[in-house]
Amino acid sequence: MDTATPITPSADPEAANRARFELELEFVQALANPFYLHSLAQQNILEQPAFINFLKYLLYFKDKDYARFIHYPHALHHLDLLQHTQFRSAMKKDEMFREYLNQQQFDHWRTW
């Protein structure tokens, strides 16, 4: 009987990279939801320097090699907007702004 240890994601760099990519992709796609953005803002997550750096890092999804995995194009638009302090502040203090984003997104999909 072979007692070799099974390959875990941490032992297999390719699997670890794939798992990380899938998590980052899922997070970027969640950014398409204005209600999720508002929730992040209400929890003061959008003000944390480490999170802002993470948002900058995620801009690699705009490259065509990675953008092809995005199912919700508004995610990339919102990722761009999140790079600006003014947008992050507006998401925190103004529920009407969240509703405006939601309505704009709805109108885009309705008429696309």
From TrEMBL:
GO terms for cellular component: mediator complex. It comes from the Eukaryota. The keyword Signal does not apply. Component of the Mediator complex. Belongs to the Mediator complex subunit 31 family. Component of the Mediator complex, a coactivator involved in the regulated transcription of nearly all RNA polymerase II-dependent genes. Mediator functions as a bridge to convey information from gene-specific regulatory proteins to the basal RNA polymerase II transcription machinery. Mediator is recruited to promoters by direct interactions with regulatory proteins and serves as a scaffold for the assembly of a functional preinitiation complex with RNA polymerase II and the general transcription factors. This is Mediator of RNA polymerase II transcription subunit 31.
